[in-house]
Amino acid sequence: MADSGVKVIVALASDVSLFSLFFIILFGYCTVKVIFANIKRGGIILCQIAVGSLYLFGVPRGYTDGFYGWCKQIIATCLTAFLQTTILYLGLLSFTQHPLLAVGICLSATEVPRIAQMFGLDTSVKVNMMSVSHTVSMGAKAVGLIKGKA
Predict the structure, then answer these.
(1) Domain residues of the chain, as ranges?
(2) How does pLDDT run along the chain (150 residues), one tens digit per residue?
(3) Measured between alpha carbons, how far is 119 from 121 in angstroms, rounded to an integer?
(4) ∠ at Cα 30 (45, 99), nearest 5°?
(5) How many CA atoms lie within 13 A of 78 on its CB side?
(6) What is the dihedral of CA 88, 93, 95, 98, to 10 degrees?
(7) Alpha carbon distance 56, 49 (integer Å)
């Protein structure tokens, strides 16, 4: 990705105009927004992985909606990060042939989370209090059973 970015910067530097300055600002905005969104998603994924095992305590009792929601959120977060990075890379690759199309592709990469939410894939962190209460009660019972046997 760095090689494509360098090619875009060299192509923009060869043509000094207000149009090139506008493209540099747009590419910088898209790149920074996608990078920071992926860093945020990485933190969310780490937290979700840590919490995910707690949902498994409720599955044998029939409380599967929390686990399904957790799986759906993990898939949505990974898919969004992958698509955003891929679309940004394709935009940078297509700049040398079609500059205006490339800017549109890069700007569309920043809208991937909103499009995913329209299809039911939510990448934000939401708390279902019923699921949390069942998970905590099952965890407490499991710890009690382990302490009782020891």
Answers:
(1) 2-149
(2) 567 767 777 776 777 778 778 877 888 888 888 888 889 888 888 888 888 888 888 888 888 888 888 888 888 888 888 998 899 888 888 887 888 888 888 888 888 888 888 887 766 655 566 666 766 777 777 778 788 765
(3) 6
(4) 140
(5) 10
(6) -110
(7) 12
For residues 58 and 54, what is the distance between their CA atoms, to the nearest angstrom?
8
Contacts of residue 48, defined as CB under 8 A and 6 or more positions apart, other chains included, come to 70, 73, 74, 77, 125
Please give the C-alpha separations between residue 148 and each of 62, 65, 103, 113, 141, in angstroms, as whole numbers.
Answer: 24, 30, 63, 47, 10
For the stretch 102-121, what's the b/e string if a residue is b when 16 or more beta carbons lie within 10 angstroms of its beta carbon?
bbebbbbbbebbeebeeeeb
pTM: 0.66
